[in-house]
Every structure is written in C-alpha cells, then in structure tokens.
Amino acid sequence: VQRLVDRMQTVTFGGRLGITNRLEVEAEVPFVYRTDSTTVTPFSTSSESAINASGKDLGDIQFGAHYQLNSGADGWPYFVANVLVKSNTGRSPFDVPLDRNTGIPTEMNTGTGFWAVQPSITAIYPSDPVVFFANLRYIWNLASTVTVQPSIPANITTPTRATIDPGNGIGGSFGMGFGINERASFSLAYEQTYLMSTSQNGATIPGSTYDIGSFDLGFSYQLNPRTSVNLGVAIGTTKAAPDTAITLRIPIKFQVF
C-alpha cells in the first residue's frame, strides 16, 4: 500500500510576439522544483517506511503559434488555430535513480522525457459583459527509446533498452469570462483530457489510460495599460488530476516594432 504526496513549484519565463494582426508566436522556459514523499506499507507487516525525493532543474521548453482564422463578423465566433510543441529538455523520469526494492524514484524528474505536439482550435464568442470560449485539442506524444532501470517490483534485474510510446490524448475545455469593470474580470471553466494507453516495445501496458479533469477559476486585474495580474486556481475532479494547482501570471506588454 502506497500513499503519495507530490508538490511541484514551477517558475516560467515566457513571451509572445505578434507577427501580424492575426498571427502570434510564443515560447516558455520553465524551471521546476519538486518534492515527493511516499509512504509504503507492505501487506505482510504493519510497519511503514517513507521515501523522500526531490528534484530541481530546467523543465520542458515549449513553443507554439496562434492564428486567428476569421474576423468574427455576422454573429460568428472568433476561431483561432493553435499549435504547441513541448520539448524534452527537462530531466526524464527514466534518468532518475530508483529504489531497487520498491521501484520508487529517489530523485525527481522535471520533464516527461518525450516530445509532444498539440494542435487545437479555440472558439471565442463575446456577448457583453460575458465572453464564452471553448477549446478542442489533440495531444501527439512521440515515441522514444529509453533505458528502463532495474527494480524488483518490475521484475527487471539489469538495465534494458525499450521503445516507449506514450499514449496520445484528446481534450477539451469550455467556460465563460465575466467583465466586472474596465480593469477586473473573472472566469469559470471546466477542462477534461483523456490519455490513451502507453505501449512498450509494441505491447500495451495495462492500466495506462488516464482521465484528467479540473474545474478552473480565474481572476484578472489590469494594473495599467502595459501590465496585468492573472490568478488561476484549478481543482482536480478525477483521480489522475492534481488535487489543486495555483497559477500566477504577470504579463507585461512591450512595443517591439
């Protein structure tokens, strides 16, 4: 029996650049610090053992582009096509040492270990003072050959090379934003992602599908024409989702050209 408490703090530096009045590109560089505490209680005894692990390093750098497809005229919503690419610059879960007896990491990864490409389409419909929005996306995780470390629970005695193909995913979100006044607003949304089965050397790994859902609450305040403060709180609604995620963003506008 295992009980896991995982806490992760991420500081991200990012930027967006408007190329035309419809095309925008972006990049994000995250730095991750994780602490993990796992309590293990064997069925054969009532004694507990705790394994504490931590990790801090560069995370997975992400970059992408957004293009507004239409003008939103004649009562149509605005449609925006997006593509995001996530790299594998963070420390992979296959590169951290494991406790041989339990298979639990003794240090924490800061990345997923795989590249991913995420195309999506966003619809935005303003109806003053409310803005309705929805997003539909597909997540393509690229396969990679990795070294699987030895551990007794996995019945692996020596390091082995294996081709891991993470399950692809499909997800969506919908919600609405409310303008309180010319400076303040808040939003309500729901987000759900389904990740398909992962395979190792072509064989599907049982129990590797995941449903990740969250209810999202956001607040925004415009400090001045250049700077705003955005606070978001996500509350997990499925077992695979984090219990709580809090995000603070401070976007600052610059006139580049």
Low-confidence stretches: none
Q: What is the rounded distance between the termini? A: 59 Å
Mean pLDDT: 92
Q: How many helical elements?
A: 0
C-alpha Rg (nearest Å): 21 Å
Q: Could you give the order of the helices and strands?
A: EEEEEEEEEEEEEEEE
| Beta fraction | over 45%
- Helix and strand composition category: mainly beta
Number of strands: 16
| Biggest sheet features | 12 strands, antiparallel
What sort of overall outline do the alpha carbons produce when their principal axes are compared? Answer: elongated
Structural commentary:
It is a single chain. With 257 residues, this protein is mainly β. The protein has no helices and 16 strands. The chain has strands spanning 2-18, 23-40, 49-58, 62-68, 78-86, 116-127, 130-141, 144-148, 160-165, 169-179, 184-195, 199-200, 203-204, 210-222, 228-236, 244-249. Strands 1, 2, 3, 4, 5, 6, 7, 10, 11, 14, 15 and 16 form a twelve-stranded antiparallel β-sheet that branches. It has a four-stranded antiparallel β-sheet with strand order 8-9-12-13, with no helix packed on it. It is elongated and about 65 Å long. It starts with a strand and ends in an 8-residue tail after the last strand.
Summarize the structure.
The protein is an all-beta fold. Helix content is 0%, strand content 59%.
Features:
4-stranded antiparallel sheet; 59% strand; mainly beta; 257 residues; 12-stranded antiparallel sheet; 16 strands
